[in-house]
Amino acid sequence: MKKAIFTLALYGITLIAKSQDTSVEKSTFGLQTGVLGIWAYNEAKLSNAIALRTELGFDFGIWETTYYDDFDSPFILTPVIVVEPRFYYNLKKRSDNSKRIDGNSGNFIAIKSSYHPELALFNADDAPVVSDFAIIPTWGIRRNIGDHFNYEAGIGVGYSYTFAERAGYSEDESGVEPNMHLRIGYRF
Q1: Are 41 and 181 in contact (CB under 8 A)?
Q2: What's the CA gap between 188 and 73, in Å, rounded?
Q3: Which of 2-6, 44-48, 104-108, 183-187 has the lowest mean pLDDT?
Q4: What are phi and psi of 180, to 5 degrees?
Q5: What angle do CA 165, 166, 167 make, to 5 degrees?
Q6: β-strands 75-88, 50-62: how paired?
Q7: What pLDDT, in 10s, does the model give residues 48-66?
Q8: CATH (domain of 115)
Q9: For the segment 85-104, what is each residue's pLDDT rounded down to a tens digit?
Q10: Is residue 4 part of a domain?
Q11: Does the structure show a pLDDT above 90 at 12?
């Protein structure tokens, strides 16, 4: 009888542990770097599968466009502000397969909104800085390496608007904006 009660209790505890909801983390902070920048981010839980990512960072670039014809491929370091809701669509599947989901490790679909102000910290040729705003639907993945490190990759295509008139050009421009990123980061 004692063995039967013990077995039922153990089975009940297992069911309770399995029935917990799989969810993104309440809040996670970190730093990431990639080929052309460094960023600090926070992801705050909005629902079990949706997190709001806010990001402040610096984008490095060698710009060669119509705005910089008179300059020899200026190297520019500009700040960027990003607000990005992310839907992590495979957390339950990853959890069911005993794969890690801590630090929001999983596949996601996001709507990346970014703004570059008319400010440059390093501007090799004193090229005029042109601010822009972009909205880019993105698909990506994040995976953990150990307890604190992670890597992330994403790809998407969206819309950008460049505020060229404010920098002294004849008209603003808009167009298609690609987003490809490969980053490695540290989560606190």
Answers
A1: no
A2: 37
A3: 2-6
A4: -135, 130
A5: 90
A6: antiparallel
A7: 999 999 999 999 876 555 5
A8: 2.40.160
A9: 999 999 999 999 999 999 99
A10: no
A11: no
Half-sphere CA count of 74, side-chain side, radius 13 A: 21
Residue 59 lies in a domain: yes
Whether residue 71 contacts residue 108, with contact meaning beta carbons closer than 8 Å, is answered with no
The tens digit of pLDDT for each residue in 125-168 reads 666 778 899 999 999 999 999 999 999 999 999 999 999 887 77
* Residue 9, in any domain of the structure: no
State the DSSP string of 153-169.
Answer: EEEEEEEEEE--GGGT-
Cα distances (angstroms) measured from residue 178 to each of 81, 101, 109, 112, 137: 17, 28, 15, 11, 10
Q: Which helix (H) or strand (E) holds 17?
A: helix 2-18
The tally of domains found in the chain comes to 1
In a domain, 98, yes or no: yes
Triad 98, 104, 107: Cα angle to 5°: 80
Eight-state DSSP code of residue 66: G
For residue 123, the one-letter residue type is: N
Report the b/e string of 107-142 with b at 16+ CB within 10 A: bbebebebebeeebeebeeebbbbbbbbebebebeb
Question: Angle at the Cα of 80 (from 164 to 139), degrees rounded to 5?
Answer: 105
